[in-house]
């Protein structure tokens, strides 16, 4: 029987549970940022027109576009700078390129767009022998446990 990848690579590859929990934590972070943006919009409207103030109503298309933008910027920035999002830090994970320590900004952006548009790709980790998501396969990245 042959093994896929080196023993070090297999031992360090993050699994579906830790990656899934990290993704949920990152979703909460994006939600908090969206809440802060909405609060800023409310306070700005109140500041400029206090006598006729009403809570702003946002369309589904606008809200979805802003959520997409915030999520992509958050993931891209974190993966480019350190390889770790808040969820990854909590779970002891880091996103790296297969042949480098960090993702390039372009690869991080494309990977972030793919994760936001197709989050189900994460489930491939459960069936892949090397614990790669579909996004990892397409963009030559991997998620590993950070050494203590």
Automatic annotation (TrEMBL):
Pfam families named among the record's database cross-references: RDD
Membrane-spanning residues: 20-43, 55-75, 108-127
Cell compartment(s), UniProt: Cell membrane
Keywords attached to this entry: Cell membrane, Membrane, Transmembrane, Transmembrane helix
Protein's recorded name: RDD family protein
Span of domain RDD: 14-138
UniProt topology in membrane: Multi-pass membrane protein
Species whose genome carries this gene: Mycolicibacterium nivoides
